[in-house]
Specification:
elongated, Serine Threonine Protein Phosphatase 5, Tetratricopeptide repeat, mainly alpha, single chain
Length: 204
């Protein structure tokens, strides 16, 4: 099913921060894909951040000296993500999760990396792991919707994920606004689509 232009207007480049504070709706995260999932990175409408190779090498050396250093591995993952080097970002996120499997933000950023590597099924599987940690993690749910809509062309599944994100997000938050706008876009293009979770748990 096609997606209306209004929905693209909301979601183009919209990646919600996990490691950082979420930026404003419709202007976040690197990459030029038609719609981007929610990560903790910079604006999608800016160029990729050049990787500081010497700093990355120094951090990698620090990480290698301490097999329990999760924070440095996450930092490296974020640096490679910002540089749009998603395979290397995923490698560092995987190492961080091996140390702390309950870090939902890293888990979700790993899923986003998979999406950018054109592996939507793997991304959704990783988001499922995040939601087993916290089934009401709004940023993860928003990402599920984006990958379902743009990676799997499953607008019904996307709408359900966005409704769950809307139910979970604090009223007035960036996540709630994005979820509502995404739902409005789907309904405008496909009035027959109603989220399965609508009305369950305080939809706004």
């Amino acid at each position: 099913m096609g997606v209306a232009g209004v929905l693209f207007g909301v979601l183009v480049g919209w990646i919600i921060g996990t490691q950082q504070t979420p930026p404003a709706v419709a202007s976040t995260a690197p990459s030029t894909a038609s719609a981007q999932p929610a990560s903790g990175q910079e604006s999608a409408q800016a160029a990729a951040t050049p990787l500081d190779e010497s700093r990355a090498a120094a951090l990698a050396s620090t990480a290698q000296r301490d097999p329990k250093d999760e924070a440095t591995r996450v930092q490296l993952g974020n640096m490679y993500f910002d540089a749009e080097r998603y395979q290397e970002a995923a490698d560092w996120y995987q190492q961080a999760l091996a140390i702390n499997p309950k870090d939902i933000n890293v888990s979700t950023d790993l899923g986003i990396s998979y999406y950018y590597m054109n592996q939507p099924d793997r991304a959704l599987a990783q988001f499922d792991k995040s939601l087993r940690i916290n089934p009401k993690h709004a940023k993860t749910l928003l990402n599920v919707g984006i990958v379902r809509a743009f990676g799997k062309q499953d607008l019904r599944g996307a709408a359900d994920a966005w409704q769950r994100a809307l139910d979970a997000a604090p009223p007035g938050s960036d996540e709630a606004k994005a979820a509502q706008q995404a739902l409005d876009g789907v309904k405008a293009a496909h009035p027959d689509i109603n989220p399965a979770s609508a009305g369950k748990g305080g939809s706004r």
